[in-house]
Design a protein that fits this description.
By secondary structure, chain A is of the alpha/beta class. Chain A contains 8 helices and 11 strands. Chain A folds into 2 domains: about 160 residues, P-loop containing nucleotide triphosphate hydrolases (Rossmann fold, 3-Layer(aba) Sandwich), CATH 3.40.50.300; about 70 residues, no CATH class. Chain B contains 13 helices and no strands. In chain B, helix 2 packs across helix 11, helix 3 crosses helix 4 and helix 12 packs across helix 13. The chains are: A alpha/beta, B mainly alpha.
């Protein structure tokens, strides 16, 4: 058990606008953090900071690698802006998860392909390996992107709204799979769906210009209000006082 | 039409045109696959047409029209980029503006130039008579540079084109790649002008990958087959052009479109056969 990254008083934003203010946030191995918060509250900015796509305006982000070549993150972005007519095969998409490690002149070996095939097998879609990505259904495509995120053996899996555009069956399987993966790696999952998130994650981060870390997966509406985290609560039946204990 | 091949060894200009067709097919196959996959066709069309501005000015001032076209093509590529990113003009509007402004400037200067502009038609519709040895060498250089670049950086190119957001998280320098690839697109366009002409160039880039895409879903094979299809199309076009004395651009594009129709038919038959096979299996 070690730290993966640590934010110390991080502020960030675009141009003159500050989106996130004074964030302290540490993720450890085998954590499972659900990130919730209103749209425009800074969830995406937080992910970009973690992934190193943008730099903080103030404060520091420290990464704790065991060895310099280690891949810290596997990333499952939101499924938007994917061109379904693009000429690329499932296999090629999965292999692109190794791009960061291989570098821009990298070549893929038989070993890499076997890794990809094993993952596809684990997701039960190995028969689709030569299909064009556009021929797949939403759930199958999401599985492929999950394979892409996993192929580099990351210590932290980052999922951005993984349950949009997928069917209920896949969603259920996805959460089972995440529980299993959580034994091997830490997971950060962004979701607008508080109802599902609380039943699967270990801890919750409420992001709305600031980040409030809630060290449990049980959160009450009062606590949400105290965190200034107005989010839509999707829950079964009337909105309970305590949002969804683990069933 | 068949004396095309015997003429190759008799007339230098036909040999030049033949070699140019071969080399243009390679460049156009690579660039075409890239712009089709990335949906940059309209942008490429804008750059192509705007380059006529440079040809017009070169006529007026009396320097090499292809150099003028190159300068204008580069200005257009950067002009569209800065119009849309800095001046908040929507990108397709910016392309449309540069497209017609370039043409307007070109026609303006051509009409100001005293006397008859001899090769004007050839710049619009292509001509095998105008391909020089120098063009062939320039094309050869372009092809070599592009082949090496694509072999070395095939995966980052593919993955950036498919999903730039993700590729960026994999530490691919997106800006550098975009600029280099845009430069290849621009140079390919300019060096193809003599053979197919400005008006018809965009089909040379888009029809071969469109045909190839009927049969393959892999970027690599798309490039290979686009080159082959482009070569068959340009050589057929050149032969007809030589035989009937029609601008080569028109014959090349018509040859390619004819190939597309045949390919579509083959695809249709293949699909039918596959579905019948599946039916009989069940």
């Amino acid at each position: 058990m070690g730290k993966i990254f640590e934010f110390t008083s991080v502020s960030a934003g675009y141009d003159d606008e500050i989106v996130l203010k004074d964030v302290n946030f540490t993720v450890w191995d085998n954590d499972f953090v659900g990130v919730i918060g209103p749209n425009g509250g800074g969830k995406t900015t937080l992910l970009k900071l973690i992934l190193g796509e943008i730099k903080p305006k103030r404060g520091t982000i420290k990464y704790f690698k065991h060895e310099p070549n280690e891949v810290l993150f596997g990333y499952l972005p939101q499924v938007i802006g994917i061109d379904k007519k693009f000429p690329i095969s499932v296999m090629e998409v999965v292999l692109s998860g190794l791009l960061g490690r291989k570098g821009i002149m990298g070549r893929y070996t038989g070993h890499d392909k076997r890794l990809a095939l094993n993952l596809l097998q684990r997701m039960e879609i190995q028969h689709l390996k030569d299909k064009a990505i556009g021929e797949l259904s939403g759930g199958q495509m999401q599985r492929v992107f999950l394979c892409r995120a996993l192929i580099s053996h990351p210590r932290l899996l980052i999922l951005d709204e993984p349950n949009t555009f997928v069917d209920n069956k896949f969603e259920k399987e996805l959460y089972e799979l995440l529980q299993e993966l959580n034994k091997e790696m830490a997971i950060i999952m962004v979701s607008h769906d508080l109802g599902t998130i609380t039943t699967h994650v270990k801890t919750i981060a409420c992001v709305n210009r600031q980040l409030h870390y809630h060290p449990s997966n049980l959160i009450t509406t009062d606590q949400l209000a105290a965190y200034d985290c107005p989010i839509q609560i999707i829950a079964h039946g009337p909105v309970p006082h305590t949002v969804l204990h683990k069933h | 039409m068949l004396h095309f091949f015997s003429d190759i060894f008799q007339y230098q200009f036909i040999l030049n045109a033949f070699l140019a067709a071969l080399l243009v097919s390679i460049a156009a196959g690579i660039v075409g696959s890239y712009i089709v996959a990335r949906r940059l066709v309209f942008l490429s069309g804008g750059i192509t047409h705007a380059s006529f501005g440079g040809i017009g000015i070169a006529y007026y001032l009396g320097f090499n029209p292809i150099l003028g076209a190159a300068i204008f093509a580069v200005i257009t590529a950067f002009g569209i980029e800065s119009l849309s990113s800095k001046y908040n003009v929507r990108e397709d509007s910016a392309i449309g503006i540069m497209w017609s402004v370039g043409m307007a400037i070109g026609i303006f200067f051509v009409f100001l130039t005293p006397g008859y502009a001899p090769n004007l038609m050839s710049f619009l519709f292509g001509s095998i008579l105008t391909v020089t040895k120098q063009d062939v060498f320039l094309l050869l250089g372009l092809d070599l540079a592009m082949i090496i670049f694509f072999i070395l950086f095939y995966y980052p190119i593919l993955y950036l084109a498919f999903d730039a957001n993700y590729a960026r998280t994999q530490r691919v320098p997106e800006k550098v790649f975009s600029y280099i690839l845009m430069a290849f697109v621009t140079v390919t366009i300019v060096l193809s002008i003599r053979l197919v002409g400005i008006i018809l160039l965009i089909s040379l880039l888009t029809v071969p990958p469109t045909i190839a895409n009927l049969f393959t879903k892999k970027f690599k094979y798309l490039i290979y087959s686009s080159i082959l299809i482009g070569f068959v199309g340009t050589i057929t076009g050149l032969m007809v052009s030589h035989g009937l004395n029609v601008p080569s651009g028109t014959t090349i594009i018509l040859a390619l479109i004819f190939m597309f129709l045949i390919a579509r038919l083959i695809r249709l038959i293949m699909d039918k056969v596959i579905s019948i096979k599946q039916l009989s299996k069940n």
